[in-house]
Amino acid sequence: MSGVGISIDTSDLAAIIPLVDGLGDFDRARLLSDIGALGESQTRRRIEEEKAGPDGAAWPENAEGTPILVRTGQHLLQSIVWIAGGDSVEWGATWEYAHVHQFGATIKPQQASHLAFMVGGRHVVAKQVTIPAREFLGLSGDNAADIVELVTNFFGRQIGRARRAS
Q1: Helix or strand or coil: residue 95?
Q2: I need a labelling partner for 13 at 20 to 30 A (CA). Which of 105, 125, 146, 148 fits?
Q3: What three-state secondary structure class fits 23?
Q4: How many CB atoms lie within 10 A of CB 166?
């Protein structure tokens, strides 16, 4: 599985927890789930709408002129998932060929001298095909800012609840 992982180290909070009532008992699973859902949403948006890597560079055009990384069956898009547990959350793609799109690949024939396939309704024969990397996993500056905002808001709500309860 190719993916993105985020870890939250809360060990440094131990010293200030007594100063911030209610913060020590935050719902870690909920926070990680919220981050995972946001990361999955950001990745889907990158594939469906932005069509650019986390660095903002537009993906190279494909030979068919169809929407990049979204073809009939939408295998990649449908395989974007997240999982949270313990102190971490990860999201990525479970589709067996996701790595080809993330890192690029060169495809060569295994048992013949040439590859033969259809592109845009025309028959193509080639000795090899290079699929350029179209990085869809990762965090852009805006993605990271969205996650920081989510975490900040989450803890702000926690503090607000603790104050109302006291």
Answers
A1: coil
A2: 146
A3: helix
A4: 7
Confidence of residue 68 (pLDDT cuts 50, 70, 90): confident
Instruction: Count Cβ atoms within 10 A of the Cβ of residue 70 and give its class: 0-12 exposed, 13-18 middle, 19 or more buried.
Output: middle
Contact 96, 75 (CB under 8 A): no
- Is pLDDT above 70 for 17? no
**C-alpha count within 13 angstroms, C-beta hemisphere, residue 21:** 7
Residue 58 β-bridge partners = 52
Average pLDDT over residues 72-86: 86
Other residues' Cβ atoms within 10 Å of the Cβ of residue 83: 15
Torsions phi, psi for 125 (to 5 deg): -125, 130
Q: Please state whether 17 falls in left (phi above 0), alpha (psi between -120 and 50) or beta.
A: alpha
- What is the total residue count of the chain? 166
Q: Look at 134 and 5; give whichever has higher pLDDT.
A: 134
Sign of CA pseudo-dihedral 137, 140, 143, 144: positive
- Token pair listed for 138: 């990762």
Residue type, 53: G
